Amino acid sequence: MPSLSDQIMDPFLGRWRRLALLFGVRTAMAFQFESVAALAPMIRSEFSVGVADIGFLIGLYLAPGIVLALPGGAIGKRFGDKPTVLVGLALMICGGLIMALTGVWHLQIVGRLMAGIGGVLLSVVMAKMVTDLFVGKEIATAMGILINSWPFGIALALLALPPVAVHGGVPLAFLLSTAFVFVGWIVLAVFYRQPEIQAVAHVGEDWPSGHALWAVIVAGAIYGLVVGSFGMIFGFGPLLLAERGWTIASASSVTSIALWLAFISTPLGGLVADRSGRHDAVMVMGFVASAVMLTAAARTDAVVAAFVGLGLVSGFPVGVIMSLPARVLSPSIRAGGMGIFFALFYLFIVVAPWVGGWLAGWAGSARVTFDLGAAMLVAGCAALWLFEALASKAHRQGSHWSSPAGKSS
Cβ(295)–Cβ(363) under 8 Å? Predict the structure, then answer.
């Protein structure tokens, strides 16, 4: 006889309902990530720190991914997906509480680092969970929806946290972001049940090898190149427009247009790819169109139109890229493979802004950062060709696992 908890959880048993729940939990991560950037002026005043210190604190949330994404996948396999995500959320809660309840700068760094470590576990394992649910079944659409939790959470933080900090102080705003994560922990713990097929731990291989390994590495590089190029818009867009005479407020407002439109284009790209079956074509068109729009946005006087165009095309290939690992990863090696995928991704998104900033200083203009983003997208096209070659060899060697719906055309 089903338990009371089973009866309560029954509405959440479908894969789309599970995805909606995971979307909500991952939104809490994005909300916490953006808390520092959203409150930057007030944090600078409260702790008497400079812009460089704020930038360091922002990046610290993602930096652990370079080292921990790889073992994060193995940890998920060893202890289970749901328990690992719950531990990640617990670390995020502890880190958030440290930041909210202490007024010492070095403890802000400790709390931010702890929260970032939890966020890495959540990102790696949650992507694997969605892959398990949707492999061969609208996976690009599902990944596009999951990824959209990031801009959604960032937008919520930008709207909600500054007014709270103005009226109650920075600690209260940090407590609000931590409370959001805590609600996510409760919801996942109570309402999420792993499908039966994932309830039993896989046995056998832990890590991909041969051509499958190289294919996953290339897929992670593609994802890092594309997201890194997108980061040029938000990292350097306001500065680019300020150089052309725009006020900072107006430049930031125009730049944010791309974020809101990407919220629409990301799942739409996945849906088009799944419905048409032409996954590679969707990615290449997205890469090329985004590269063209980045180059144009850096030079045209029609700034608003350019950033609208960027938002409409830049999110199109992202969900499809996230479906690439499923092409070469069997269930027994998926956890380790996703760790490899995200390790490459984190490396690119941490290094890309630094390279962009160095180039801007060397060239004397932020325009070169948009050119860098365009070049990264062109490199993504070449990397996609390499991925297809490696995936084909992995298929012939029988070292992959896929389904017709997961293949690209």
Answer: no
